[in-house]
Amino acid sequence: MQQRELGRSGLRIAPLVLGGNVFGWTADQATSFRILDAFVAGGGNAIDTADGYSVWVPGHVGGESETIIGQWLHRRGRRDDVIIATKVGWEVNADNKGLKKDYILRAVEGSLKRLQTDYIDLYQSHKDDPTVSVQEPLEAYAQLIQEGKVRAIGASNFSAQRLTEALQASEQHGLPRYETLQPLYNLYDRADFERELRPVVQQHGLGVIPYYGLAAGFLTGKYRSPADLQKSARGGGVGQKYLNERGLRILAAVDEVAARHQATPAQVALAWIMAQPGLTAPIASGSKPEQIEELLPALQLPLSADDLRALDQASAS
């Protein structure tokens, strides 16, 4: 399987990243281990998580996903052949949030302990912190890279302006630069990235690992009517955003392409992202190993120019 480099980091991954947001939430430890096993067995090698996963669940304090991944790494002995990406900066609680240098240096120790590892391959700013300069977190990351605790850094949920300013600060002050961007991007949610962020990442050679590659499950074809929204806890939110004329038009095009390739809608939606200029690998998650096994064939799904044209036309806003 052909791997792709994450920016200029030297890190190489298969063009599909496993999202760890469900670990400890909708997937318990045993199920999470089976999901991770299935992903690696199918050729995947990059796993994305965050110290804030899954603080939104009642009774959770954050770090649940990292803990499960760390237990899996330890028990399976897989640390050397997978790329671990985690994040810092989301509000875990009132005293643990943001991108101040001292907080990053403290937070990374918790992530390293939970992940049961000495280093993080890709450490990402989970979201921009407008209360600090773009330079301050880079100074923290420089120290962590020097100490061998982090190999490369990335940004998530940054505006084009702040990302540009951060890249300029890296160059001007001799600091490590963000090698990746993790934005919202899929067949439905594409306009903002393509208009604002893609020119920046292409100019600077950043890798792009978008989240919500399946639009919160909508692009799997699971939600096609109001009645379908009862199928999961997040169905209501999916319906409000995606179950409309444009969303159904996109699904129809995805269905047509899937039928031509004897593929599933989810595989087509992910393969479309993989085929976009400047996109490295979409992030996708699942609460069952069977769901991950269904997604993996997207890695070997070559979409034709006609396929891409049909999907682009249907998803035009």
From TrEMBL:
* Gene3D superfamilies hit by this protein: NADP-dependent oxidoreductase domain (3.20.20.100)
Concerning CDD domains, the annotation shows: AKR_AKR9C1 (cd19081)
Q: Where is the NADP-dependent oxidoreductase domain?
A: 15-314
Q: Which InterPro entries match?
A: AKR, AKR_Detox_Biosynth, NAD(P)_OxRdtase_dom_sf, NADP_OxRdtase_dom
One Pfam family from the record: Aldo_ket_red
Instruction: Report keywords, A-Z.
Output: Oxidoreductase
Q: Which GO terms describe its molecular function?
A: oxidoreductase activity
Q: Name one GO cellular component term.
A: cytosol
**What protein name applies here?**
Aldo/keto reductase
Source species of the chain: Hymenobacter jeollabukensis
